[in-house]
Amino acid sequence: MTSIASITLDVADPSAAERFYADAFGLDDGRLNLRASEAPTSGFRGFTLSLVVGQPADVRGLFDSAVAAGATALKPVSKSMWGYGATVQAPDGTIWKIATSAKKDAGPATRHIDSIVLLLGVADVAASKRFYVEHGLAVGKSFGRMYVEFAADAAPVKLGLYRRRALAKDAGVAADGSGSHRLAIAGTGGSFTDPDGFPWEPATAAAAA
């Protein structure tokens, strides 16, 4: 079954981005790679990354550390029927959501991240779902033409599909955008580009970048 080993962000200054992600989230375990790029991009890049954590205190802690490291707060920490969440935009432009389904804290805050979820904003969820199934991903959950979550088992990064405008609204930004996604997905399914222009590459290529 095809799965994601890591994601690579194309950034203007890899050293600065590395410092930000270490200070903000402690992401230094290979799930996130960075490489230099000046590819033109503007507005919403069509994706978000989510950090799923264990309790509200962890959401608050990571949100605070991200803002202290230079992120822009798009949505402050708030409670919803699903749990707690917050959204920030990193200095390199990537949008990150920090979330938990827990309603109460079970202990002191930690910086442990249970999972990373890549949500792609797509033009046609059904068409993209078919494309990914044909490329070896198995559907975990599907909600018609609104949202699809692929089975991940123990994969380092999980994948979901969301309608582009709905994803932008959830992130708190305008849906308009153009140019490079500034994202590459490293997985086990070889090299290909999906219907919305998101490129996949072999995991070994991303590790060497």
Automatic annotation (TrEMBL):
InterPro entries associated with the record: Glyas_Bleomycin-R_OHBP_Dase
Stated name of the protein: Glyoxalase
Species the sequence originates in: Streptacidiphilus pinicola
Lineage: Bacteria, Bacillati, Actinomycetota, Actinomycetes, Kitasatosporales
